[in-house]
Prior knowledge:
- By secondary structure, this protein is α/β, with parallel strands linked by helices.
- Helices cover 31% and strands 20% of the residues.
- The protein contains ten helices and eleven strands.
- The strands form two sheets. It has a seven-stranded mixed sheet, sandwiched between helices. It has a four-stranded mixed sheet with strand order 2-5-3-4.
- Helix 5 packs parallel to helix 10.
- The longest helix has 14 residues.
- The two termini are 32 Å apart.
- The N terminus is likely disordered.
Amino acid sequence: MARRGQRSTTHGTPGRPRFWGRHAVTAALANPERTIRKIWGTREALAGFKLPSAIQVTYADVADLARLVPGDAPHQGIVAEVDPLEDIWLGDLLNQRGDDKRPLVVLDQVTDPHNVGAILRSAAAFNALGIVTQDRHAPPESGVVARAASGALELVPWVRVVNLARALDEIAEAEFWRIGLTGESQTTLADAIGDSRVALVLGAEGEGMRQNTEAHCDVLARLPIAPKMESLNVSNAAAIALYAATVR
């Protein structure tokens, strides 16, 4: 089974995450698939928004807003409580042919919400088909993810799957060339890409891809970074890989 939304219970009503900052809230308001339940904000911040009458709006000062979000979160005077987006099935995503060269990003137990948010932002920038993560080993929708994604959480399809190996089999059946990124390979990403639709598979921070995930890739490849650097942050690696898949 592949699903869109792992429910969040952090800093919000159970099942409803809170987003903060102008980019995240503006993008959520612009997304017709997103239900916004409540908005808190200063009068100055809310003056720049045209808010639907159905949304419950509460004026608050900066100190009150700070208590609604994690410590030191840059709320910029506005906080929104939202429903998670509806589930997306992997098969439905793979059947969206569109531009056949759009890359797909697969994340193997990448758990840091800042990294996942940054990867979503790069995926939006390079018009990726979507991202695929495990259900239990990826962060839920949250204010941290939304902030790091800078609006891309509302733009990029995010599929959650129970079993990543089975998902990679399904991705192969959809005629994607599955490239696992690892510094141990002698093959560079440029040599591995080829002409097929590409699924870029990236492993967790520190540990990299699990062995079973590597076994479900068609080829393993590395980014040609200088030997004095052991590796890149996973979000940086994803951005470079997406660029390479776009300009081939």
